[in-house]
Amino acid sequence: MTAETITNTLDFGVAKAITKEDMSGFDALYQQHYRRVFSICLRMTGNMSEAEDLAQDVFLQLHRKIKSFRGESAFTTWLHRLTVNQVLMHFRKRSVRSELTTEDGEMPETAEVGSEQPASLPIIDRIALETAISELPPGYRSVFVLHDVEGYEHEEIAKILGCNVGTSKSQLHKARMKLRRLIQQRQEPQAA
């Protein structure tokens, strides 16, 4: 058994124990996974205090939804998806709250890029990036997410995906180039 398999088995066991209303294992899950959850939140938001708040929200969600974990995937995969979804919901809620209004409370006819709410622009960029990532071929997407989002090194990625380190590096380079093209294609029609 690999260390990852043992960890996933232990996490599944702890998750199942928690579903039986024994919350003593929840502290162990929190201690073990907080840094990873916080890291994902920080990478997605780029803001330390938002990341801390979101990491706490993730663990509140985890507490509520732990009973839905069936063990069909690795616990860390399930928790990663829960974390990403929580951050994306935060962006959606924030963008709804930060609608542009005039002094009279009316919605403006048009909004110029970079005016009024420049802080809301990165949200649009993040959503465009998420969309572009979803359009990558599966091999490119896997390596990109593992390296640039999750923070794994190429050696770890090669073990996870069962490929060579050189393949991992090549796939990452190709994924970044394709992402660049996809994002530029989306921006060209807007500029016209």
Question: What can you see in these coordinates?
Answer:
The chain has 2 domains: 1-97, Rna Polymerase Sigma Factor, Chain: A (Orthogonal Bundle); 118-192, Winged helix-like DNA-binding domain superfamily/Winged helix DNA-binding domain (Arc Repressor Mutant, subunit A, Orthogonal Bundle). It is built from 8 helices and no strands. The protein has helices at 3-19, 24-45, 48-65, 75-97, 121-134, 138-149, 154-161, 165-191. It is globular and about 50 Å long.
Sequence-ordered SSE layout with sheet pairings:
Blueprint: H1 3-19, H2 24-45, H3 48-65, H4 75-97, H5 121-134, H6 138-149, H7 154-161, H8 165-191
Give the helices and strands as they follow along the chain. Answer: HHHHHHHH
Q: Write the CATH architecture name of the largest domain.
A: Orthogonal Bundle
At the fourth CATH level, what is the homologous superfamily of the largest domain? RNA polymerase sigma factor, region 2, helix turn helix motif
Task: Give the overall average pLDDT.
Answer: 75
Q: Using DSSP, what is the number of strands?
A: 0
**Silhouette:** globular
Overall number of domains:
2
Cα end-to-end separation: 56 Å
CATH topology annotation of the largest domain: Rna Polymerase Sigma Factor, Chain: A
Structural class comes to mainly alpha
* Helix content percent band: over 70%
Q: Please give the count of helices.
A: 8
Beta-strand proportion: under 5%
The top level CATH class name of the largest domain: Mainly Alpha
Poorly predicted spans = 5-10, 105-121
Integer-rounded radius of gyration: 20 Å
**Biggest beta-sheet profile:** none
